[in-house]
Amino acid sequence: MNGAAARPPEYGQLSAVVPGRRYDAALHLLDRQLVDPNGELVAKVDDLELAERTDGRLVVTALLTGPGAFGPRLGGRLGRWVVSIWRRLSDHDSATPGRIPFSAVSGIDSAIHLTRRRDSLGVDGLEVWIRSHIVRQLPGAGHAPE
Amino acid sequence: MHPNDTPGVETRRLGDLLGMRVVAPGGQELGRVSDARLAPGPAVNGARAELLVDGFLVSHGHPGSLLGYDRRERQGPAIVRWIVRAIQQARYVSWHDVEKVDWNGRAIRLRSAGTSPLQSV
User: Fold this and answer.
1) What is the pTM of this model?
2) Residue A50: its chain B contacts at CB < 8 A?
3) How far apart are CA B61 and CA B59, in angstroms?
């Protein structure tokens, strides 16, 4: 389900940081794949954290992942059910979303590129849980594809 | 509000904004927030400029309506472009026209009743 993507571009060649580039948050950032400097897939963006500055402007401070972010975004009874089920199945407080500070973002294109390696982020995405608790338990999961 | 890792700093989420009512000064509801437009700010945050909420896309449809086909001027093929124009309803509200974000009431209250045509990013 997850694995190393193709060899990432050399540092400085990332095409995403365009001066003056604007983004539509839901269209360009939500549900985008987060990729670390080694090309490893990290998680998907489930929500954005916003902080209110003293002048009232809202600034993006972090990317949020996991059911703690996705459930509230669904809203209503379905959203609460998602968080509740996840909390029962996981081994940590899943009400707290995974949080990647926006300062770790190096570029935004078809994916969101990070400056930090996956294993240093402490983000436990839905796909990671599924891989470790479901996929790896399937018969034959340990065999390399033919 | 959502507590975050920085002590004493209360934060919000994009998900809180999506679907909010957009209300003119007289109480007229102009639509709902379907997206938030982000623009680079003056400060640098890590490897890139900070991103500020610069305005809101307002529509009467469900958030995510048209799947972004209405955001590109050169949208093709022609039949898609024709359909999008026929049902185009998203408008744009600049941050400078926002009087207040009423988080508890889930509404964005404007200084004036006007909205602008939606420009592509």
Assistant:
1) 0.75
2) 11-14, 17, 53
3) 5
